[in-house]
Every structure is written in structure tokens, then in C-alpha cells.
Amino acid sequence: xxxxxxxxxxxxxxxxxxxxxxxxxxxLDSMGHLLGDRRFSVDLAGYQALLDWAAGFxxxxxxxxxxxxxxxxxxxxxxxxxxxxxxxxxxxxxLTRSRSGKNDAIxxxxxxxxxxxxxxxxxxxxxxxxxxxxxxxxxxxxxxxKSRTAALVQLRDxxxxxxxxxxxxxxxxxxxxxxxxxxxxxxDMARLDTPEQAAKYALRELGRRVHDxxxxxxxxxxxxxxxxxxxxxxxxxxxxxxxxxxxxxxxTAGENIDRFPSEAAFARLCGVAxxxxxxxxxxxxxxxxxxxxQANRAIYLVTVGRLKLDxxxxxxxxxxxxxxxxRGDVIRSLKRYVxxxxxxxxxxxxxxxxxxxLQLPLGGPISLNEPGGGPVDLAVSLASAASSxxxxxxxxxxxxxxxAGSGGPxx
Length: 411
Hints:
- Helix 5 crosses helix 7, helix 7 crosses helix 8 and helix 12 packs across helix 13.
- By secondary structure, the protein is α/β, with parallel strands linked by helices.
- The chain contains 16 helices and seven strands.
- The radius of gyration is 27 Å and the shape is globular.
- The strands form two sheets. Strands 3-2-1-4-5 form a five-stranded mixed β-sheet.
- Helix content is 56%, strand content 10%.
């Protein structure tokens, strides 16, 4: 008689503390016991060595990686290409640092424990598709805008103390027009030791810089418009949603939109989810002060723009103001509604993009707007339409939009 014994299969969870030069990894078994930790270089050889080292402990359940959008981006792409689940892990908590100290090994172990306990369960962003390309273009445009603004402010400040003859020559009404005039200045390069010629030279160079940056901005806008109209046509068709807002929302959400369990999670990420601040007889709500502030700003601009043009939103504002709510309360409620609408439009576009890449059929179109009614009615019809096509969509629009506009400082 032959007796056979079977060894239980051990699953391991790996946590990685990422840095610019080295990554530190720690491995835990399913019971939370530390199996080992090790440092690896930040290159393809180091990524593969980390994966081989982790596989030596057993079947890999998941990787918990810190900073998947910055220092851990390369490792995340390598692990996803190898078919390993990667969970995005937030930075270490201050309580853990005060109790256990801080070093790379402790941070890596803490990242693995967050994944093992379920505290962190959101998949990392997919940075291998068109959304990552849009992020790069949006980054170039954003930095060019900031640089052009700085150059225009410097040009204005130089004109404040410039000689009177220069002020008379640059007599346009706007700073942009003055920068165009400054490009035509011809300083005497042999007399740059005099304030007037030095001021001419400075103004001319700032005018040229503004011109070049404007050309960069226009090129980026053209490329962004082309990409966004082909990738997110539903999102771009929404009222008051331009290419800058669409790009920011798309970059914030990421290409794998299914990493959000619901539209409420997306609203939380954008900082427009209601938070209760009630106490005793006071029953109030406010918006979440955290989240992605760039996405929050984009949603705010869409909301303010719609308030100026949409009669249904103006009717909703007037009704809420008559009930005693402030303008900030109304905007907070509408920001929650706008976030919901943006989420379902974005989800539809990204699911269609994924289906086209896989050459799979997708369900019928989603109606994002319904004529008539106020913003609450629009939100309900939107959530209902989405729930009929998109799995996991929730239709609790009325309660959330009403609850989000009950006081608290504006986000």
C-alpha cells in the first residue's frame, strides 16, 4: 500500500516600496507571515529578478505597489505584461511610522499587508494605451500654459519700470498683444550696458518666448482634440466639456475604467462625494476636501458654465435658493450630478475602446440626456439608462445629489 502526501499550495502577496534607483520588495504568505525581503534595481533586469524571486515563494496572489503612476510605473507595466495582478497602494500611514518606524523594508511589508487585508483593492492604472498618450500631451500643454503666464507677467512687470519711450511703443491693450509688439523691438547689442537697450532685449526675448509657447499650446490643443474626438466622442459631446476638461477627467480615471466599483468611487476620487458633518440637531453634508483637485476644478468649470446656459439648471438653482440654500450648496449638488454624468459617458467610451481593441461587440447606445425636468431628474434618467447596459451601475442619483448640497465649505 502506497501512501501519498500532498503539500498545500502556498500563495504569496508581494509588497513593493518604489524609489527612483531601487525597489524594495517584501513577501507575505496567506497567514501574514513575512517570508523575506530584498532590494532590486530599477531596470528590466531588476523587474524580472523581482518577479522570479517572488515566484520562488509560491503562487503569486497579487503585487501591492506604491506610486504606480510615478516611481512604480515601469514595474507595474512589466508585472501586468506578465499577467500578474497589481494593486495600487497608498503611502504609509503616520500611525504605522510612529509605532514601527520607517525604512524601505517596513514600507514594503506594510504595502503587502494592505493588499492582504483588503484595505487596498483598486487595480493599478493601465498606462500602455491611448490615455497615457493623452496624459503626456496634456502635461506639455499645462506646463506651456504656466510658462506663458509667467512670461507675460514678467513682461508686464518690466513695462512698469521701463523708460517712457518703450511704454509708448508697446501701447496695446492686452498683454498678449504687447508681447507681439515686443517681438519687433530691435535692441542695440553693443549698448546692452544701458537700461533702455537691456529692457528692449528683455522685452523682445519675452515676446519671442510667449510666441513660441503659444505655438506649442496650439499644437497640443490640435493633437488633443483629434485624439479625444476619436477615443471619447460621448464625453466630448456633453455640454460645456471641452478638450482640456475631457483630457483631465480621462487622465484622472485611467484607461481601465472598471477599476472603479461604482460612479460613487469616481466621485470620491474627484473630491465631489458628499461627506456627513452632522452633530446633534444639525444635519449637514459637505464635499470631500481630498481627491484629485485638477479633476475637481474641471468639474467645477463645467458646472459653472452650465449654470449660465442651461435653463433647467438655472431653475434648479432658483428652487434651491428659495428653499434657503446658498449658491455654494447649489454648486456642490450640481458638481455631484456632473461627476455622475461624466463617469457614465467616460465608461461608455472606454468600454467601446476596449471592445474595439478586442474586436468584441458591445451593447446598444446609452442615452445620456433626457429633455425636460431638473438636474435631479436628469441624473435619475442617466443612472437608469446606464444600469440597463452597464453592469454594477447604481441608480441612487436623487438621494446623493440632494444630500450633497446641504452646507459645508465649497470644494
